[in-house]
Write a structure and sequence with these properties.
mainly alpha, 3-stranded antiparallel β-sheet, 43% helix, elongated
Length: 138
């Protein structure tokens, strides 16, 4: 059996009762950790401009954006560009906008140690984030 519950603006009393009930049945509960239009829109809206550009470019380029495409000048550093991607993901989890187990939608590619060769978004997330970008830009 599958039951999906969405509660918009619950009263604190109702929310406490629901959380207590769910806590009693955690072994039977599977959390939906997929990105959807609402989650992606909140995420994109919360990002600062440089991080939004990474997401937008990844979507426009079919899921992969090379680091050079994000540099306005060949010598520019991308240091600090991707930190908000993780920070906003964590903030959204704390605010309850998406579940704890949700994956980062855009991941850096490269050898590590701060060097980034590009960013990648899974193909199935591209349409979801296309809609999110449109929602925020309207």
């Amino acid at each position: 059996m599958r039951i999906t519950v969405t509660v918009d603006d619950p009263t604190p009393e109702f929310q406490d009762k629901l959380i207590t009930l769910l806590a009693e049945h955690t072994e039977d509960i599977e959390t939906d950790t997929r990105w959807n239009e609402e989650r992606a829109t909140h995420y994109f809206r919360m990002l600062p401009a440089r991080a939004r550009r990474i997401v937008k470019e990844a979507v426009q380029r079919g899921g992969m954006v090379p680091a050079d495409a994000l540099r306005d000048n060949p010598d520019d550093s991308l240091r600090g560009h991707s930190a908000p991607l993780s920070r906003i993901l964590q903030r959204g989890k704390m605010l309850g906008r998406w579940p704890e187990g949700i994956d980062q939608p855009v991941k850096p590619l490269g050898p590590g140690f701060g060097k980034v060769e590009g960013y990648e978004m899974p193909a199935d997330l591209i349409p979801v984030f296309q809609t999110a970008i449109r929602n925020v830009q309207q």
